[in-house]
């Protein structure tokens, strides 16, 4: 969620030091006592500020610190930004935007207890702040605090009942971006709640993710993808939630005809073994298109081949290597063969 910025538009003033005063004083001292009393009264007014004035000054200082912290965070110095945000809260604890921005920093650090705490404070101060509610639910989900997560989704009008059990529902398909700050890869996933999804594609092994992994993703879209005429938002993955038991295998094939690959994939599909041709299904996009709207003519996309390729790289995800090797052995003949097979990322056994 984007950070929020709030600035006070109120103009506050406070009394400065008193100017010089000129009075006629009877040299016999007849007026001395009243004048002294008045002078003491003026001095007291100059040194003691009204409570409302002090609060206004604190709020102005907090607003200035908040803005400085935002600038530092934009420059990549989240540590310095966090220090200023915490100072701002000391001066103006009622400023929900500061609590929200602190929670945002902790979210991207994966410090979920701190993120939940500060987003909860932001929601307590501004219950209808949708961004703070979403980040609160994300942190609660990361911590498996299902009661809190369900309460937030329910409050936001999402069809999720109250309770304390994990959410396992059908929220449709969505593309998600793995390792958004590094060598990003966008894959399709099946959403099981508003911020968790199970990976459908087989990611490259150097991503560290597997087919069937359940990931925690952000709630703000960063780019879009089209599938069968419909546009879907892309969400950045925040972290691995539950690892898949399926290992990733890379298989180099030599084909005799275009139908050979189709035959092998059909057999794998019948056995419910996830597979995809990395030679045919993967395209490369620049960052601008990846985080925006990819288009057909982009010069970084792989153009569709006019003729089939004899050598194909097939990816398979399975937790039964023996079954996979048996399928490949049955498929191979004099015109087609497996040139190499390798497990490039092990599944996680529970």
UniProtKB/TrEMBL annotation:
Q: Extract the SMART domains matched here.
A: TPR (SM00028)
Ordered alphabetically, the record's keywords are: TPR repeat
Membrane spanning segments where? none
Which Pfam family, giving just one, matches this sequence?
A: TPR_11
TPR repeat windows: 62-95, 96-129
PROSITE patterns per the record? Answer: TPR
Q: What's the protein called, per UniProt?
A: Tetratricopeptide repeat protein
Which organism is this entry from? Pseudomonas denitrificans
């Amino acid at each position: 969620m984007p950070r929020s910025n709030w600035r006070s538009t109120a103009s506050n003033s406070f009394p400065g030091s008193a100017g010089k005063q000129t009075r006629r004083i009877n040299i016999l001292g007849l007026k001395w006592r009243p004048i002294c009393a008045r002078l003491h009264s003026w001095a007291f007014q100059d040194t003691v500020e009204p409570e409302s004035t002090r609060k206004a000054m604190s709020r102005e200082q907090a607003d200035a610190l908040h803005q400085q912290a935002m600038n530092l965070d934009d420059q990549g110095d989240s540590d310095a930004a966090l220090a200023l945000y915490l100072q701002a809260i000391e001066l103006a604890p009622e400023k929900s935007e500061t609590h929200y921005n602190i929670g945002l920093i902790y979210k991207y650090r994966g410090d979920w207890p701190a993120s939940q705490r500060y987003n909860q404070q932001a929601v307590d101060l501004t219950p209808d702040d949708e961004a703070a509610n979403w980040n609160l639910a994300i942190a609660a989900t990361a911590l498996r605090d299902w009661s809190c997560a369900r309460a937030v989704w329910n409050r936001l009008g999402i069809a999720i009942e109250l309770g304390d059990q994990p959410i396992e529902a059908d929220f449709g398909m969505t593309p998600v971006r793995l390792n958004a700050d590094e060598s990003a890869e966008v894959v399709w996933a099946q959403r099981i709640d508003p911020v968790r999804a199970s990976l459908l594609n087989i990611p490259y092994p150097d991503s560290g993710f597997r087919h069937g992994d359940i990931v925690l993703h952000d709630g703000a879209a960063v780019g879009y993808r089209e599938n069968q005429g419909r546009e879907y938002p892309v969400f950045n993955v925040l972290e691995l939630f539950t690892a898949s038991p399926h290992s990733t295998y890379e298989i180099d094939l030599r084909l005799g005809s275009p139908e050979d690959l189709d035959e092998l994939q059909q057999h794998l599909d019948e056995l419910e073994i996830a597979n995809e041709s990395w030679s045919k299904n993967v395209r490369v996009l620049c960052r601008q298109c990846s985080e925006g709207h990819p288009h057909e003519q982009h010069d970084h996309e792989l153009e569709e081949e006019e003729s089939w390729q004899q050598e194909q790289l097939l990816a398979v995800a399975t937790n039964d290597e023996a079954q996979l090797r048996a399928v490949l052995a049955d498929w191979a003949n004099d015109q087609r063969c497996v040139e190499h097979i390798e497990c490039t990322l092990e599944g996680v056994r529970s």
